[in-house]
Amino acid sequence: MAGHDNLQIARGSFAAWNAHDVEAFVKRLDAKTTWESDAFPAPFVGHEGARQFFTLYLTAFPDLHLDVEQILPAGDGHVLVRWRSTGTHRGPLAQIPASGRKA
Fold this sequence. Notes:
The chain is of the alpha+beta class. It contains 3 helices and 4 strands.
């Protein structure tokens, strides 16, 4: 896949997060995708795992927004993204109760 295509996929993934559109996000992922977070003891696997991960974070941070600060092609099949997230902790995240604080 050309570097330009990878950049478009990455941009679309961040746009899906910002639109809070789980299906638009999942359709860009490989079925073998694994997501890990220090808030959860086990990884999330596959499309269903990605849906769970996405939903849990948007439940915890319903105003979550990801700002892409820099995006670069990095060889065949890779993209580097520097991004910043903001949101208000309004719901539980794993065993962490909502704090109402901005992050």
